[in-house]
Amino acid sequence: MDRRSFLRTGAVGAAATTLAAPAIAQGARTLTMVTSWPRGFAVLDDAATYFNEAVNAMSGGSLTIEKKAPGELVGAFEVFDAVTSGQADMYHSADYYFIGQHPGYAFFTAVPFGATAQELTNWYYHDGGQDLHNELGQIFGLHSMQCGNSGSQSGGWFRNELGSASDLQGLRFRMPGLGGQVLGKLGASVQNIPGGELYQALSSGALDGLEWVGPFADERAGFQEVAKVYYTAGFHEPGSGLSAAMNLDVWESLDDTQRAVIDNAAKATTHYQLSQTLANNGAALARLQQQGVKTLQFSDDIWDAFGAASKEVLDENMGDELYAKIRNSFDASLAKSSDWILKSDGEFVAQRNRVLAG
Fold first, then answer.
1. Which of 145, 152, 153, 132 is nearest to 54 (CA)?
2. pTM (2 decimals)?
3. How far is Cα of residue 50 from the mean position of the Cα atoms in its chain?
4. Which of 200, 223, 214 has the alpha carbon at shortest distance from 44?
5. Helix, strand, or coil here: 299?
6. Per CATH, which fold does 9-150+240-279 belong to?
7. Digit-coded pLDDT (tens) for 167-199
8. How much is the pLDDT for 2?
9. Local structure of residue 72 (DSSP, 8 states)
10. Is the pLDDT of residue 29 over 60?
């Protein structure tokens, strides 16, 4: 029996019979939420904080979330295990950090050449994505929710310009998720380092480059101080969703009103964070350029290499039944959304730019 089959049938069942039910205080509840974001990190910790405060305010005092940054209870990449084990009640993170648990988690953050932020939310709320997120989460004893989106992420920071796809060979680069696997196929030495450690890794020379979020978040992280080449468009995360996931026993112990508060706070966070990011990226990019940052686009040669390797990576897990189910649902929704967006918003933007330029 493979590990995933065991998780579906053995581990979850054993946990249900051997772990004590969560203690439920009378009246008000305090929920411990571990996050993957250092305190004050633009966009990502902003989203976790907004969600935290929204739940506290909307619940009328029946729920209080106690938010913990990496290192305050567990590490940035240990939040998944902390919640599945009951060490914490919930996490706020990017689910593609957990593709080692199941590769299907990638689709709930971002996949190479995948969905924009709007397309991701279309799938999630109206084409079955949320149900699939919870079908996957239940294997691990989780109730999962989208809880933020940072929009399209930049191609990343580099010490030197890339002339062609061959320059990726041996490049020490930070990129998580399936995008990182794509770079690995192209010869890069891919590393997945928590956000709080990225500045030091780039400044020390341990990394030749990295991707993080976009101008607003990247500026606050200070990457412009140690690298001056910035590719503004990336293949790997066209619309990056964040997630809040709760221990399933804890979720089921809440009453209907408390669940509704958490669910709607997560939806509000997704809307708020995306608009926050897009409202600030342009001005942040201008400031970066004023500090000597050179903004570039990848060459067609590099884009073609990204595309070919992405197809390979996306196909590699199709033998897993649940991964295939998630991907097929995602692709079908994306095809529907993109066709209309191209014929409506896409055409409008092209015509607007043409008319205003004239």
1. 145
2. 0.90
3. 16
4. 214
5. coil
6. D-Maltodextrin-Binding Protein; domain 2 (3.40.190)
7. 999 999 999 999 999 999 999 999 999 999 999
8. 40
9. T
10. yes
Distance, in Å, from the CA atom of 138 to the CA atom of 13, rounded to the nearest integer, reads 11
Q: Transcribe 157-220 into DSSP letters.
A: EESS---SGGGGTT-EEE--HHHHHHHHHTT-EEE---GGGHHHHHHHTS-SEE--S-HHHHHH
Name the band, by pLDDT with cuts 50, 70 and 90, for residue 358. confident
Per domain, the residue ranges of the chain are: 9-150+240-279
Instruction: Residue 177: name the closest of 129, 113, 134, 245 by CA.
Output: 113
Which residue is listed with tokens 């929704």?
A: 333
Tell me the two tokens of residue 343: 């014929």
* Average pLDDT estimate for 323-351: 95
| Nearest alpha carbon to residue 168 among 182, 154, 178 | 182
Nearest partner of 298 among 182, 201, 205, judged by Cα: 182
Identify whether the C-beta of residue 171 lies closer than 8 Å to the C-beta of residue 229. no
